Amino acid sequence: MDTSVFGLIAHAGIVGKLVLLALLLASILCWGVIFKKLGEFRNAENLNKKFSDAFWASKDLDDLYAKSEKYQGAPVAALFLAGMKEFRRFQAMLLKQSNPLDSPELENISRSLQKTASSEVAKLEENIIWLATVASSGPFVGLFGTVWGIMTSFQRIGQSGAANLAVVAPGISEALIATAAGIGAAIPAAIFYNFFLTKIKRQSLDLDGFSQDFLNIVRRSHFSSESNSKKSTEGSQHGFSTP
Fold it and tell me: What's the predicted TM-score (pTM) here?
């Protein structure tokens, strides 16, 4: 009997082969998700940095809004677009509010930012559930294959009537391959699942921080417009105008 890994796999029963096939497919799926998500996070981080630099360097948000399409794929840019759409929709009403902190329009902008942030985080979380599933279930699937293989091995021993090491060892080795395969599939899945969770938490913090910055800009814009309006009114009453 061929005692190499491939020889033992070839000699395994139908259940053992099905278990190994399932673990192989799960491992291929996990590595596909891993490489895909690595590319997505790298792209999102690079675009976020470029957009943030452009945002803080820009003196005209409307101009940045017109150019923001080139940052498509950046979660922060998507957040900016959602906030600007809501801000421009209610801008006329915002300028008439006496207290922007209590204005329903500002609450609408805040809700729009929160909804978009949740949507962007959900996109980043997409498919990583497969990594968690394989990380938690892979060893148990492998253990099932091992238990089944050991049962089959003992049945063979009982049928042959011999229980020496030369008879027992190949069957046990064949069964343990399933456990090794389950652990081999679970380890990278668990490592990258936690790695991606850390990345997602960091992106979520960046989105929350940008939301607060954007709302502060809206508040300052409203205060500035309100102040200029009051100065203009007072100036006309006293016979002078303010720029």
Answer: 0.77
